[in-house]
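Input sequence (198 aa), recorded before submission:
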Amino acid sequence: MPKRIRIRLKWLGLVCLFAPLSSFIFIKPDWLARLVAVNGFSLALTILVFIYGLNPKSHMLGKRAYLHKVSDPKKKKIEYIMRGIVVLFGTGLLWFIIKPLICDDIQFVRQGLAYARNVDGSLAADNSTIRGMYFLYQGLIIKRDGQQVGNSYSALFFTRFVHLGREYHFIIAPKSGVVLDFEDVMPNTSLGSTTTAR
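Predicted structure, token format:
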């Protein structure tokens, strides 16, 4: 495959991967736009993984100098193993990400936002990001009254950062664990209660 075509295909893959983010422009409210974006991004990622793993023209090994001394039959075996790993990874994406998202989508269509899980709490530990790019992904462990609430939750495509030590109100998709929205919960000392910052 010519180098120019390979470069175009890579750019096409990136466009397909991040095209779902346009939902924030065309869809309101934000929680619904984020649900659509996460679905689209996850589906595009899964499809690209399967295309890469199953396409016989995709070269898993590439042109690595240390493979020159390896015989062709061994190279083919290594490539088959690598393809198997990629396909297994895609299958894992289907089972652990796409399936829970589809279950959430069906319930949101039936019940609307009433289906979402509402949690008031704070972070139990610093949130994890991808090389500091919190606007792509934040992994959150939430605690309420000193007790951890569920497992780790995923906050994707937020321009806001979830800070340790602050109280928040989280709206979460129950099956997939995707945070659809969150707001600061500020203490109102004069009334002895809390108010939500909007």
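Checked by second reader. Confidence is low (pLDDT under 50) at residues 188-194.
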